DNA sequence: ATGAAAGCGCTAACAG
DNA sequence: CTGTTAGCGCTTTCAT
């Protein structure tokens, strides 16, 4: 089923049919009769254009590649959901790629996407700087970085002010009277881990105290890792009062142990974490949290990409989004007042 | 950059180059010298085959379409993650589509996927039976249903025994001494909603009691909907003791209100829900939960699709997976003993 | 206002 | 062992 069948049925030539199909009837002053007869045949035969052929001919596939570390993570799930929807609005289909934080996968996928002649790539990279492969690829197709970026790059990117947010969260914990704070991290040398730990450390430095290396863990971005880190932490330092979790997944894992620990010991641990807003309601406890604007993150990434596709040279924009520090979530029934007061006094 | 450049550089013909590229050097007894010289040029020029052209020529794109209601839902997130990874192992790329429970979107995407000449489609449908469009499409490309299926269809599918599991969950609630049970549902007339409510009703019927229609809600598969339904329920019936949630998202939303309510009234509500295993640890409370084997679900769907691609006529398999009813999750510190005892007595 | 023909980059049948 | 050529389905000059 191709234009050929339409041709046989109507007697018109390839070009005329193609023009009608692409809505260029007016432009080429094709008679209404011709157009109608073609459209009728198209409907009757249920003809649909072959997008692969069109892609080959046009050197444009209307396809983009989305590379994320882990689509299971609801944070990336939401980003993917938003971007896919927005891209669809521009006529693009989205090819999904999961790197699982493995740099080799990232290189593999980037290559595949180029081979598939996608029109652009949105990338939440594992690498922390522009490695050789990417340098070659960005010459061929526009690439936009989302969430995780490179420090020195003229690739367009969008991310949140993670370092600053982490700093503020820790500072808040200090103001609440905690000076021993554990850091439950993810994959070492990864962008987020680096930036958020940097903010963590900065807050300590300003306060003039040293980060206790025994309270710093980096086991991976997953609930399982979070659980393990929390267990190790409690084994090592049962009297810990405040814990900083590098992301939502680590937080969820950590909470399992925290709750158990609190029941057993009667002690309360103050938790701080990034991007846990969706879960905040579910915990009957004060929580220090930083929330990124996922909608803006997604929208910006797509906009930057579209711009890049339209004019590859014009796209060097860097967007740093503020992160919402709705610092404490305190169910009013649970003595939150005391916390709040301490915070207000500074 | 195409085979042509390789040809110009090495002097060999299209076909020879193509053969070497596709690892058919042995088969066509191409001399080692020729092969090496070609491979050298390929490396030197950084040549990569154009998958669009290959796809057009071979009538095979090594691409599959994945249509899910909502990639934000960690349940589908995990399925997508597993399937993408497995498909990648077979050399396929995955095109991601979100229907948001809207039937029109499903039809749109299916059409796009066919136009893109994907080699197959994995579909968690919104429709509850084989509508006209699908009937046409399945003639062109293999389609596999996952999670949500059609009752009478010879399309291959894989799902869990949802009706039975819901029945067992409710029966468990009965045995624990609750006979007024609320149903917090999702999108009406959707497969899961139907099946799980059917199981819910069946348990009531067996017990000889009627389902109270005032305790049945269907507001959508989302935390927001769950929250709203729980609020409505508590307004209507503050003394409710047991609540059945149709899925993980509804459960998460509902919990927010439950916790508040419990703190305010001192009453305990027993929650039952599907696919909340990942969150179970986080709640210090008994929970009745049914857990689907997402790994098996994903693996089976991919296997069925691969089979379907290899032999379109051979694929009519239906796989119904048992659902794990690890019925009660009871933190031992919290009087779980009493619950367990009641359950054991039957 | 419409048609003929080239060509996107690749594979494979056929020829030698 | 290697080369020539047709053709996948489409868009787009260039003719007329």
Rg over alpha carbons of chain A: 26 Å
Write out the CATH superfamily name of the largest domain in chain A: Response regulator
**So what's the oligomer here?**
homodimer
Beta-strand fraction estimate of chain A: 5-15%
Strand order of the largest sheet of chain A: 2-1-3-4-5-11
The portion of residues assigned to helices of chain A is: 40-55%
Kindly describe this structure.
Two copies of one chain form a homodimer. Chain A is an alpha/beta fold and 346 residues long. Chain A has three domains: 3-49, lambda repressor-like DNA-binding domains (434 Repressor (Amino-terminal Domain), Orthogonal Bundle), CATH 1.10.260; 58-158 and 293-320, Response regulator (Rossmann fold); 162-292 and 326-345, Response regulator (Rossmann fold, 3-Layer(aba) Sandwich), CATH 3.40.50. The first copy, chain A, is built from 14 helices and twelve strands. Chain A has helices spanning 3-10, 14-21, 32-45, 51-58, 74-89, 103-115, 132-140, 162-175, 191-207, 223-236, 248-265, 277-280, 294-310, 336-345; strands spanning 63-68, 93-98, 120-123, 143-146, 157-160, 181-185, 216-218, 242-245, 270-274, 287-290, 318-321, 328-329. Chain A has a six-stranded parallel β-sheet, sandwiched between helices. In chain A, strands 7-6-8-9-10-12 form a six-stranded mixed β-sheet, sandwiched between helices. In chain A, helix 1 packs across helix 3 (32-45), helix 5 (74-89) packs across helix 13 and helix 8 crosses helix 9. The radius of gyration of chain A is 26 Å and the shape is elongated. Chain A starts with a helix and ends with a helix. In chain A, 46% of the residues are buried. At the A-B interface, helix 4, helix 5, strand 2, helix 6 and helix 11 of A face helix 4, helix 5, strand 2, helix 6 and helix 11 of B. Strand 2 of chain A pairs antiparallel with strand 2 (93-98) of chain B, so a sheet runs across the interface. Chain A binds a DNA duplex (16 and 16 nucleotides) through residues 2-4, 12-16, 18-19, 21-22, 28-31, 34, 49-59.
């Amino acid at each position: 089923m191709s234009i050929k069948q339409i041709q046989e049925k109507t007697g018109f030539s390839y070009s005329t049919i193609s023009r009608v199909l692409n809505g260029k009837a007016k432009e080429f002053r094709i008679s209404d009769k011709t157009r109608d007869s073609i459209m009728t045949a198209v409907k009757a035969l249920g003809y649909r254009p072959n997008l692969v052929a069109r892609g080959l001919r046009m050197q444009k596939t209307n396809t983009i590649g989305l590379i994320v570390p882990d689509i299971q993570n609801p944070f990336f799930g939401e980003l993917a959901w938003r971007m896919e929807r927005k891209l669809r609005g521009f006529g693009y289909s989205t090819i999904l790629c999961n790197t699982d934080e493995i740099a080799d996968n990232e290189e593999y996928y980037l290559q595949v996407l180029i081979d598939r002649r996608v029109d652009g790539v949105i990338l939440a990279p594992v690498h922390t700087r522009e490695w050789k492969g990417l340098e070659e690829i960005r010459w061929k197709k526009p690439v936009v970085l989302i969430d995780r970026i490179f420090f020195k790059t003229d690739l367009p990117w969008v991310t949140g002010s993670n370092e600053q947010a982490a700093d503020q969260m820790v500072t808040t914990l200090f103001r609440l009277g905690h000076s021993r704070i554990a850091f439950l991290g993810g994959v070492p040398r990864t962008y987020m881990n680096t930036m958020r730990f940097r903010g963590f450390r900065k807050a300590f430095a300003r306060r003039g105290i040293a980060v206790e290396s025994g309270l710093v863990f980096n086991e991976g971005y997953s609930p399982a890792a979070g659980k393990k880190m929390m267990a190790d932490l409690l084994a090592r330092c049962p009297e810990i009062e405040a814990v900083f979790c590098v992301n939502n997944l680590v937080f969820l894992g950590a909470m399992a142990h925290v709750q158990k620990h609190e029941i057993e010991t009667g002690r309360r641990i103050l938790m701080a974490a990034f991007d846990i807003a969706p879960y905040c309601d579910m915990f009957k406890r004060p929580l220090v949290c930083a929330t990124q604007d996922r909608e803006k993150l997604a929208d910006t990434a797509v906009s930057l990409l579209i711009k890049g596709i339209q004019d590859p040279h014009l796209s060097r924009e860097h967007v740093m989004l503020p992160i919402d520090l709705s610092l404490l979530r305190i169910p009013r029934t649970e003595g939150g007042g005391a916390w709040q007061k301490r915070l207000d006094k500074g």
